[in-house]
Structures are given as structure tokens and as C-alpha cells.
């Protein structure tokens, strides 16, 4: 009987997992409140509602292009950066009447390598903060190869308080294998310099790398934690068809075996908990006294720059990836390439998805965000199944994701990246103004 229950639970987990990721299935469409597959089109007009927003700025430049990286980026040139910087200012001008009177609740800068042109980045941050004054957390992604003490000092002067450093590994052989342009010593020095400069520091670490083993993963985790960072974020190496490096060392699918992924994530959990860290997202652990660092848990945000996406609650849209087309478009309009209308129920599912990622599903927050709606009335059956599977625990405030649930949501995140982002980003990388993308 116990074996049968285990088998049935496994089958149910797999069914939920597959249903959640099949955007074209009847089950997903019913759950999302749509009658046709999700599509982004060139001629859909976005809407913005009346909510507060987070801001995201995408800086699409690197001096060295890591072959595994799926994000929109090109090799840095001073001339192209000048064009990009001027275009961001013009894009902001278009948003001024749209966002008038709104509160900005966060500002995140990613890439690319945001500090590839330190002077340009500082000017951009200062300008955006002048356009949208107020107190809100400001975070920047850093590469160890582009984060010297002068850069850090300038970032502090314009109000940056959080940084995420792309350490990935502290083994030089592993770093060379994935094409990184820094070594372990440079990564450790960058972490220490950021801590000394007064930033809240997150270290990005990758597991299931080619040639990585459990021992090297343990040693990377332990060494980073001993330096004194405030948070670690751990994630596997993704496989995208359009990147120059696909991690085919494990299997034909380019994905590490399930047992390896699960074991490496558990190794990270035990290492972090030994140092007193608490789990803050499905793949991050944070010191209790620190503010968690996350680039993805905003329910509504506006993206600036080539390839930046925006979610307004009622619309999801993405800017053209081409820097030249982006600069040409902002001369007269917003540089939006594709837009999708987001039905109200899909907006609520989007909130639920990222609440799972952040490990807490709050009844009060759901009611406040969605006009007095009741969480259990809307998603009670779905949440009840997850609770019975051991993925959620329930309390008076809502639901908490368990360690077992975090693993399965981690799997969902990986599949989400491989399916949704693969379709959308590959289309936008090859065509500046695609007519339609069907998810």
C-alpha cells in the first residue's frame, strides 16, 4: 500500500509539473482563464492601470560574451554604448506621462555586464533616480572582472545598496569550462571589496556545471559563506539552443540527471543552514538580518533598455532586442516589440507562481492586490493538493513552501526558463520586430 501511495504521488507530481508547463494544453488554459494558447503580438496595445511599479534597466553589453549565457547582450563598444545611453533617456521621456504619480518600489539593473561602462551606468542611475525620486532599494548585478573599488565607490554615491556578484564557482577549471573571464581569486576579492564598501551582497553560484563534482560544489559553497556574504543564490546551468555552449556533458537533453540536481540543491541547503542562513526563495538562502535580494518577485514592473520586459498586471510586453532598432524607435515611441494581454485570472496565477518562488503565499496580500478576493476560494483546490503532497504547510496567514515543495518549484522554474524563455527570446534575438510568438 505504501509503495502504491508513493507511486501515485509521483504520478500526480509529474502530471502537475507537465500541466503547469504546457502553455497550449486545455488544462493550463482552463487554469489560466484563457480559451486559446498564449500569444504575444506586435499590434497589441499595452495598458498600465494605476499600480506602483518596480523598475528594471537592462544593460546589454559585455567585454567577453560567456558562451552559455542566454540573455540579450553584445560585445561592448563605446560608440554603441553612447547610442544606448541616449536612447534610454528618450525611453524614460515616453514613460513620464504614463507613470506620473506612481510610486517606484524598487530599481534593479541587470545585463549583460552593467558596469562594463562605469561612467555611463552611474549617469543612468543618477538620471533615473532624479526622474523618479524617493526611497527604494537599488540593486546592480556585478561581474568579478568589472567591480574594482572605484566602481563600487561610485555606485554607493548614487544610492546603490545591493549587489549580486556572478561568482558561479571558485574552481578555475570550472570557470574556464563555461567561458568566464575571471578566476577564483578575483571572485573572492570582489566579494570582500563589496562587503567592505557597505553593500548587501548576494553571490550567484552555479551547480551541475561540466566537470563539477559534489566536493568542488561543497568547497565553493563553504568558501563563499565564510567570506561573509549576506545571501547565496544557486541555480543549475541552463541549456538554450541558441547559445554557443550547451551543457551536453550529462545527457542528450543537456540537463543533469535528476538525482544530481536534487543532491546539489540539498548540499547547498545544508551548507547555508550550518551558517545560520534561512531559505528566502526556492534557490536562495539569506542571513536572517539581511534584506533578501531578488530580481524576479515583483508583481508589476517596467523594463527599460533593449530586450527588457514589463509586466503591468493587465499587459506583458517586451522591448526589441536590437540596440539599433531600439534607438531608432524611441525617437518617436516606446520600443515595444511584442505585447500580450493578461487576463485577470492569469495575472493572479502569475502572482501565485512568484509567491511560490518566494516561499510564502499570503491570504492578506492576495486580498489586497486583487480587490478583496479570497485566496482559498480562488485557488483552494490547487493549494489543497499541494499541501497533501507535502509541498505546502498552512497557517493562519496563508501557506508556506516546504523544502520538498521548494525542490519541485525549482524544477518548474528550470522548465519555465527552458520553454517560455527559449521561445520568446530566440524569436526576439533573430528578428527585431517579430509579428507573433506563441507560447
Give a verbal description of the structure.
- The protein has 439 residues and is α/β, with parallel strands linked by helices.
- The chain folds into two domains: 12-38 and 343-439, Arc Repressor Mutant, subunit A, CATH 1.10.10; 53-286, Aldolase class I (TIM Barrel), CATH 3.20.20.
- The chain is built from 14 helices and 19 strands.
- It has a nine-stranded mixed sheet, covered by helices on one side. The protein has a three-stranded antiparallel sheet with strand order 13-14-15, with no helix packed on it.
- Strand 5, helix 4 (118-131) and strand 6 (138-142) form a beta-alpha-beta unit.
- Helix 3 (78-99) crosses helix 10 (323-329).
- The longest helix has 28 residues, at 403-430.
- The chain is globular, with a radius of gyration of 21 Å.
- It starts with a helix and ends with a strand.
Amino acid at each position: 500500500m505504501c509503495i502504491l501511495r508513493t507511486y501515485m504521488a509521483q504520478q500526480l507530481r509529474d502530471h502537475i509539473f507537465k500541466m503547469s508547463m504546457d502553455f497550449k494544453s486545455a488544462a493550463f488554459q482552463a487554469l489560466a482563464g484563457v480559451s486559446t494558447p498564449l500569444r504575444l503580438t506586435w499590434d497589441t496595445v499595452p495598458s498600465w492601470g494605476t499600480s506602483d511599479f518596480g523598475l528594471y534597466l537592462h544593460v546589454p553589453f559585455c567585454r567577453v560574451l560567456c558562451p552559455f549565457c542566454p540573455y540579450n547582450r553584445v560585445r561592448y563598444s563605446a560608440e554603441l554604448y553612447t547610442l544606448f545611453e541616449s536612447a534610454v533617456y528618450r525611453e524614460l521621456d515616453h514613460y513620464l506621462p504614463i507613470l506620473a504619480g506612481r510610486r517606484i518600489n524598487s530599481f534593479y539593473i541587470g545585463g549583460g555586464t552593467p558596469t562594463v561602462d562605469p561612467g555611463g551606468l552611474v549617469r543612468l542611475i543618477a538620471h533615473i533616480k532624479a526622474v523618479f525620486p524617493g526611497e527604494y532599494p537599488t540593486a546592480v548585478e556585478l561581474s568579478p572582472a568589472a567591480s574594482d573599488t572605484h566602481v563600487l565607490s561610485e555606485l554607493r554615491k548614487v544610492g546603490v545598496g545591493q549587489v549580486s556578484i556572478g561568482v558561479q564557482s571558485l574552481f578555475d577549471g570550472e570557470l574556464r569550462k563555461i567561458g568566464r573571464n575571471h578566476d577564483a581569486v578575483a571572485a573572492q576579492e570582489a566579494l570582500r571589496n563589496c562587503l567592505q564598501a557597505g553593500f548587501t551582497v548576494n553571490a550567484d553560484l552555479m551547480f551541475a556545471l561540466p566537470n563539477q563534482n559534489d566536493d568542488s560544489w561543497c568547497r565553493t559553497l563553504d568558501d563563499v559563506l565564510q567570506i561573509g556574504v549576506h545571501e547565496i543564490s544557486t541555480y543549475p546551468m541552463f541549456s538554450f539552443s541558441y547559445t554557443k555552449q550547451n551543457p551536453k556533458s550529462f545527457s542528450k537533453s543537456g540537463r543533469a540527471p535528476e538525482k544530481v540536481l536534487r543532491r546539489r540543491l540539498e548540499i547547498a541547503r545544508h551548507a547555508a543552514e550550518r551558517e545560520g542562513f534561512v531559505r528566502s526563495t526556492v534557490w536562495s538562502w539569506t542571513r536572517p538580518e539581511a534584506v533578501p535580494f531578488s530580481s524576479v518577485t515583483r508583481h508589476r514592473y517596467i523594463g527599460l533598455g533593449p530586450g527588457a520586459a514589463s509586466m503591468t498586471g493587465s499587459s506583458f510586453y517586451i522591448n526589441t532586442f536590437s540596440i539599433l532598432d531600439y534607438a531608432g524607435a524611441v525617437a518617436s515611441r516606446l520600443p515595444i516589440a511584442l505585447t500580450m494581454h493578461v487576463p485577470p485570472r492569469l495575472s493572479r496565477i502569475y502572482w501565485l507562481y512568484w509567491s511560490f518562488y518566494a516561499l510564502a503565499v499570503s491570504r492578506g496580500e492576495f486580498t489586497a492586490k486583487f480587490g478583496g478576493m479570497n485566496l482559498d476560494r480562488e485557488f483552494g483546490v490547487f493549494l489543497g493538493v499541494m499541501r497533501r503532497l507535502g509541498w505546502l504547510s498552512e497557517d493562519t496567514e496563508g501557506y508556506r513552501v516546504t523544502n520538498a515543495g521548494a525542490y519541485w518549484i525549482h524544477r518548474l522554474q528550470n522548465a519555465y526558463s527552458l520553454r517560455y524563455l527559449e521561445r520568446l527570446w530566440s524569436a526576439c534575438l533573430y528578428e527585431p520586430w517579430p509579428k507573433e510568438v506563441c507560447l
